[in-house]
Write a structure and sequence with these properties.
The chain has 711 residues and is mainly β. It folds into three domains: 242 residues, Beta Barrel (Porin); 110 residues, GMP Synthetase, Chain A, domain 3 (2-Layer Sandwich), CATH 3.30.300; 271 residues, no CATH class. Helix content is 11%, strand content 41%. The longest helix is centred in the N-terminal third of the chain and has 18 residues.
Length: 711
């Protein structure tokens, strides 16, 4: 079985209703569709985003942190710059930000990262203290480091800090770190191609600046007043045709808390120009909603007229099959062991966000329909065609059918095993073909000509079950609207253009085949902890090919191992069935670790990439029971930074944003995307077909059943 993924259009259509009032106020900020994808759940505002996205005042950072797991998106615009920032509270003590900052007037945009770590949490007497590095991996245009403290008195929150780099522009205070080493006196400004750690600049320079400010939150009004002292003189902006330096280090403004999710800010910056911004926050840690399918009358009721032709109302399996499917689950097979008073039931879940909710629903229905002599049920958990676990439960009786199920008290989780072939198997192969049509989008981000190029298209797709557990997937793109014609840059890569010609695929393939492939996912009968996947056809916009993946996942282990490989052929740009001359054999050996820390998982992939370069990728993702997944990856290969080009090596962010977190549906559907600061050719992999199986099965991992949320 293959999980359903909802399109971004569903997300956008519902969000537009909430955005329309803001669009009248902030047309400059809300002209981008990105903001349409990020308004949603209510979340208490306890800190504010600075113009750089990091928690702070107006432009300077503070020592404050958002609640753990907060994901925020901020857009700011003033007379000097526009800034788009994504911030994630990765740990209670660590905040990370990615920014895209620049000006269309001079066609220069800068990508940079910032991290801030809390050193000391505020107490009654002591302030909160944090240390941060701005432009950690970038060109150094916005480079600065800082140590900052915050103390709260009633409604006042006071910030005071020491800064290096741009936060020391107008300062005559000597750098105190020079007493440790003369190396701290010299700050290197040229960071080359960017994308590499700018360690030779950290906390260096002849001077250290003092910055700070104060925020006052009203009790009776959703407004916070702000004032700050910022020594940054905007010299880089001044060197590009602006005023030579900031008029004043003083700024003041206010933040309007539209609701617990959205803040809008307005500031008079450096007593010279006006800045305006918006921040949207989402909580990635919230408890998943319980999905409740449409109520129905059980097939046990003989007056129930909804019994399709071909089903026997007097046969327990047919009745169970009908009620399971009306609960938006799949019954794949069953076997009874009457002498043991036991049944084995295999189920699959495509719709429930939280697998224990799906199992609870299946267990109530199964307990109603099984023959009377069955007292115990072993459920085989099938996720996307892979049988992962056996969850053993006592049969429910009487009043227990209407009560919540405490899995922690009654469930036992074992390695998956069907002791023999099932007596009853559901055949999902049908003569009819179902076609889905929905709006979708493609984005090309961070091009200096147009930082947000996009296409809106109709996605015509189908999934067809084939005999012997094969499946065919196909989708075709029909253009509705795009602004991709505004882009004109061509690749200068010295490597094979395995990804850097993406603009040609966007422009020449406005209409075309997205994928057309067959796939089989299964578990080896001889070793139920060994899983495989094989596929072949048109795999993605740029590549066709054949390949597979084998994964060994020991039961209840935090480690897993996999090998994946494919023979890939580069497609023509027009979205048809033709191919270019480029072919490559690519593959990776992978190790996965489900860490015990804050739901973080780590994967390392080593092997051969699409440009025939050799190297390794490390991925770190944080996943929650509600479906949120946020992560980073970085790849280093035998391609030098010079040959790779701007950015020095491949890196980026991964997001899976569940619609349930926004609309409380309880139903599994999500918007998934990868964001790269820049698309080059080094370190490129097949998207979705290169070491992805472990991530695909994450929602049904062992600990989801062994330590579930009590319902």
């Amino acid at each position: 079985m293959i999980k359903k993924e909802a399109s971004a259009s569903f997300f956008s259509r519902n969000i537009i209703k909430a955005i329309i009032p803001l669009k009248k106020i902030l047309p400059k900020l809300l002209k981008t569709p990105v903001i349409l994808m990020l308004c949603g759940v209510l979340y208490p505002a306890s800190a504010f985003a600075s113009n750089y996205g990091t928690t702070g005042i107006i432009e300077v950072p503070s020592a404050r942190m958002q609640p753990d797991g907060t994901f925020s998106f901020a857009i700011t615009h003033d007379a000097l710059l526009e800034s788009y920032a994504i911030t994630y509270q990765a740990f209670p003590w660590l905040e990370g930000t990615f920014r895209y900052t620049g000006t269309k007037e001079f066609f220069y945009w800068d990508r940079n990262y910032e991290v801030k770590a809390r050193l000391l949490e505020e107490t009654e007497r002591l302030p909160q203290i944090s240390v941060g590095i701005r432009d950690l991996v970038g060109t150094g245009k916005f480079g600065s480091e800082y140590i900052v403290a915050n103390k709260r008195w009633d409604n006042f929150d006071v910030t005071l800090g020491l800064g290096w780099g741009r936060l020391a522009d107008n300062s005559s205070l000597s750098n105190p770190l020079t007493v440790l080493s003369d190396q701290f006196e010299t700050r290197i400004q040229d960071t080359g191609l960017g994308g590499e750690l700018s360690s030779k600049t950290f906390f260096r320079g002849q001077h250290t600046g003092i910055f700070g400010g104060v925020a006052y939150r009203f009790d009776d009004y959703p407004v916070t007043l702000q004032a700050e002292y910022n020594p940054d003189e905007n010299r880089w902006e001044g060197g590009r045709g602006r005023d030579p330096q900031a008029k004043s280090p003083l700024s003041y403004g206010l933040v309007w808390h539209v609701d617990d999710t959205i803040d809008i800010s307005l500031a008079h910056q450096h007593l010279d120009h006006v800045g305006i911004g918006i921040q949207v926050r989402l909580d990635t840690t919230q408890t998943p909603s319980q999905y409740k399918p449409t109520p129905f009358i059980s097939s046990l009721d003989k007056n129930n007229s909804y019994i399709p032709d071909g089903l026997n109302p007097d046969f327990w399996y047919d009745n169970l099959l009908l009620d399971i499917e009306r609960s938006d689950l799949f019954l794949l097979g069953a076997k009874l062991y009457p002498t043991q008073g036991r049944a084995e039931i295999e189920i699959n879940n495509d719709d429930y966000v939280y697998w224990p909710d799906a199992l609870a629903q299946a267990h109530r229905i199964t307990s109603m329909h099984l023959p009377n002599n069955i007292k115990h049920v072993d459920y085989l958990i099938n996720e996307q065609g892979h049988v992962l676990h056996t969850v053993s439960l006592p049969r429910l009786t009487g009043s227990e059918l209407g009560q919540s199920i405490d899995f922690a008290q009654i469930a036992n989780v074992f390695p998956a095993s069907m002791t023999s072939q099932p007596d009853h198997i559901t055949n999902f192969v049908k003569d009819t073909v179902q076609v889905d049509v929905e709006l979708d989008n493609r984005l090309m981000l961070f091009d200096p000509d147009n930082p947000l190029a996009y296409q809106i298209f109709a996605n015509i797709s189908t999934k067809i079950d084939l005999p012997k557990e094969w499946m065919l997937r196909a989708s075709y793109r029909v253009d509705v609207y795009n602004n991709i014609d505004t882009l004109s840059r061509v690749s200068s890569s010295v490597l094979p253009h395995v990804r850097s010609d993406s603009l040609k695929y966007l422009q020449q393939g406005e209409n075309g085949l997205q994928n057309l492939f067959v796939e089989k996912r299964d578990t080896f009968n001889i070793e139920p902890q060994l899983h495989y996947r094989v596929f072949g056809g048109v795999l993605e916009d740029m590549y066709s090919g054949v390949g597979g993946e084998i994964m060994y996942q020991p039961h209840a282990s935090r480690l897993a191992f996999a090998i994946s490989g494919a023979y890939a052929m580069q497609r023509e740009y027009d979205g048809g069935l033709g191919h270019l001359d480029y072919k490559v054999l690519t593959g990776h050996a992978s190790v996965y670790w489900a860490t015990p820390f804050y739901n973080y998982d780590v994967a390392v992939h080593a092997g051969r990439y699409l440009a025939k370069d050799i190297g390794a990728t490390i991925e770190v993702r944080r996943t929650f029971d509600n479906g949120w997944q946020i992560g980073l990856w970085a790849t280093k290969t035998d391609v030098s930074a010079e040959d790779f080009g701007e950015g020095s090596f491949d890196k980026g962010m991964f997001f899976r944003i569940p619609f349930d977190s926004l609309f409380q549906t309880g139903k599994k559907s999500a918007f998934k995307t990868r964001i790269r600061p820049i698309q080059r050719d080094g370190g490129a992999r097949l998207e979705g077909f290169s070491g992805d199986m472990w991530w695909d099965l994450r929602d049904a991992r062992f600990d989801m059943f062994s330590d579930p949320i009590r319902r």
